[in-house]
Amino acid sequence: MRIDKMLSNLGFGSRKEVKKLLKDGAVQVNEELVKDPKYHVDTDQDVVTVHGEEIQYREFIYLMMNKPPGVISATEDDRDQTVIDLLELEDRIFEPFPVGRLDKDTEGLLLITNDGQLAHKLLSPKKHVPKTYFAVIDGEVTEEDIQAFKRGVVLDDGYETKPGELVILKSGIRSDIELTITEGKFHQVKRMFQAVGKRVVYLQRLTMGPLALDETLELGEYRELTEEEIDALMGYQV
């Protein structure tokens, strides 16, 4: 990769700013001064330093966010704050995007990456990647609902969902449940409960495939995935 492209990708400025950095003698490759922006670097082997600090190049970034309510799962929006707006500049320069969508008022696990291949793998309808949600339901959730979800319910637009696994944690005027589904229709969890005459009042995503929400993350916080988590996602088969 050209040295100017590498430095630009890593957030050291525009190509023009990077050229000045090189011209000023701030960059070394394998302890040799490099001033030519067209100089090619082996990103796996070469040791690159800027102002004496070694830098690591990487193509992809993988982040886990505990998405807060009121923020939308998009890269940009004219009216609302997006999950990308919550990222530090050093992470935004990788131009990541949310993998799938969580509704504006839904909280919980959101994977953010710039790895399009992985995103496609996790979102492809053919893959049936399971996602588990915790929800508070206005109304008593019953065994009948468990059976209805197991068969699949008909949504307001006539679509019949694939089977969902419903677990009642607490039943009453307000019920706590966990629901695992393998597809991601618009507002699906809310519409599934609508189909059985009940209303979701709180929704949080707990898991996506092999990835589980880190409970130490406060709302709006995020962290990089561990090597183990990345490996689990890469090798995941339903």
Give the helix tally: 7
Distance between the termini: 36 Å
Give the topology string: H per helix, E per strand: HHEEEEEHEEHEHEEHEEEH
Unreliably modeled segments: none
Concise structural overview:
With 238 residues, the protein is an alpha+beta fold.
Descriptive overview:
This protein is α+β, with helices and mostly antiparallel strands and 238 residues long. It is built from 7 helices and 13 strands. The protein has helices at residues 3-9, 15-23, 89-92, 116-123, 143-151, 188-195, 227-234, and strands at 27-29, 32-33, 48-50, 53-55, 62-67, 97-98, 107-113, 131-138, 165-170, 174-181, 199-208, 211-212, 222-224. The strands form 2 sheets. Strands 5, 6, 7, 8, 9, 10, 11, 12 and 13 form a 9-stranded mixed β-sheet that branches. A hairpin with a 2-residue loop joins strand 3 (48-50) and strand 4 (53-55). Helix 1 (3-9) packs across helix 2 (15-23). The longest helix has 9 residues, at 15-23. The protein is elongated.
Key phrases:
238 residues, alpha+beta, 9-stranded mixed β-sheet, elongated
Topology, element by element:
Blueprint: H1 3-9, H2 15-23, E1 27-29, E2 32-33, E3 48-50, E4 53-55, E5 62-67, H3 89-92, E6 97-98, E7 107-113, H4 116-123, E8 131-138, H5 143-151, E9 165-170, E10 174-181, H6 188-195, E11 199-208, E12 211-212, E13 222-224, H7 227-234
Parallel strand pairs: 7-11
Antiparallel strand pairs: 1-2, 1-3, 3-4, 5-7, 5-13, 6-7, 8-10, 8-11, 9-10, 11-12
